[in-house]
Queue: 3 jobs
Job 1
Amino acid sequence: MNWKKITLAAFIFLSIGSLLYFDLNRFFDLDFIKSQLDAIQSYKQENFELTLLIYFCVYCISVALSIPGAMVLTLLGGAVFGVFFGTLVISFASSIGATLAFFTSRVLLRKWVLERFGKYLVPINEGFEREGLFYLFALRMVPIFPFFAVNLLMGLTTIKARSFYIISQLGMFLSTVVYVNAGAQLSMINSLSGIISPPVIISLAILGVSPIIAKYLLNIIKRKKGEEI
């Protein structure tokens, strides 16, 4: 076993151990987050950097281990840190976590990924061969396949890890901003009347039409790409 496999195996072992020991999976439950939001906000006021670091690590580990709950964590990031810091930390945490999942698939779990998600590999390979890095960018903008499946299956392709990371961060940025903003607005609701406030309505509207906006932007990029060719 080479150093890459040892490092990844140690990371997975420590991550799962941390999740179990510290009961971090409670942060993926929306009801728990809502009940603890005031306490989290209060702790953040006194320990901003530490709160940001803990949140970054939990988010990164959840993505790396393909644990469901990224959307809940993203809304939490917007509620606790606001749009600017929430977008900043989530953009990097999600991309780094995705790249760790990518490495894990490539180095340790190739056989398991093929058995579990092999049906997605053929269209992904065809799209990647046809459009190159732009295909990954499109998958990040408009998720045709599950987010975690893209991370794992891309590890079985010939794409370089650096390219995977950069394209993932760029492609996921729009959806990250939309969800973080929604979390920031929803955290301000203190009564039923707050649900119909303009900022909340606008945020929810953007959340709903964001896939359409992403698809529209992709079509523009494709047309420009065709013109350059």
Job 2
Amino acid sequence: MRVLAWSLSVLAVALAAGGTSVAADDPAADPAPRDWAYSLLANAYIFPGDAEDEEDFLLGVAAADRGALHLEARWNYEALDTGSLWAGWNWSTGETVELELTPMLGAVLGETDGVAPGLELSLAWRRLDYYLESEAVFDLDDRDESFVYGWSELAVSPVDWLRVGIVAQRTRVYQTERDVQRGVLAQFVLGVTTVGAYWFNPGEDDSFTVAVVQLDF
């Protein structure tokens, strides 16, 4: 609940910042069209009952875009009990093959304190797509604790409401014997809502599941 409340608070601030006021001396004036786009994401990391070293947790992300400007807030992303605030710039090109890039810079605060340059990338061709999130966290308290994080997906959408594929992740939020977690994904698109699940390290002793809910509006 804390993750969702925190994400909604960030979204409320973005909504307030994105509003357009009408001059008081012209009550008949029409407000300019609102051109902000928002996204709320909740990831529930669910570990098997015999995973004594890991506890289930929620990861939250709230994002706001207006034109090329991209703003983002994250919780439990770089580390547990840690938040990060990001600003970036959207850039896109292509028609048959569509490429979108968002270089960003973030401040990390909490159990880990640092600065982080990052990148979000998406590449799409017909019903095939590739997505990448990557960042390098430079720990301000202990240089040896700096690390590189990555999340990547390769997927296909056989129909508009279904997306399936493979996923890989490198993180320090939880620990396993593997440096890179890999698995499979399935997502269902229901209007502005996307629900899905990721199954990491399937069939192995260190397998776990991530349940996902995302709202785009």
Job 3
Amino acid sequence: MMEHKREVFEEIVTRFVELKNTSELMIDLAYSSLMLNSKDLAEEVERLEENVDKLHTDFELLALTSDFKKEEASGFLGLIRLGVATERIADAAAEMAEVVLRGIEPHPVLKLAIREAEETVTQACVTSDSQLVDKTLKEARVPEETGMWILAIRRGNKSLRPKPGMKIQLGDVLLASGYAEGVEDFQKLASPAHQCDLE
């Protein structure tokens, strides 16, 4: 019985961490979509917002249907409130991205910043012939090789916040920003001989 409770507790924590990490990633991508006036990043934020809604519902259902005693379950109340806060953060990120997707004219200060920026956003799919497969982000040295910084990794139906120790896998879609001159090198690094479907 204790083993089952521990497993349930660990699952609740795991789901909360995923919810928190996804909302943080959304904020990063939403700011980048505004600064770079990137519809690709804004669409990624929109896609993630739908994912967060499901994550939040699953998280709350798991916490509320767990069979912990009242004194054991009281600690979940704080987690549930934090879960609500992370969903609000995700909603705010989606509202920021909406500005880009609707083509709303940016404020003159933001427009000036966008015009002055020499950065761009691109994405590339990691194919079997890429030297990136099974390398950690630190080992891959993408910024040094291409001048592009990885903003997010889309793996299946999840988008992950990049961390130095994270391994790049075959089929990962890398979203990156950097100087326009680095885009071709970045694409070739991820997909040397061919492109894969990014849809």
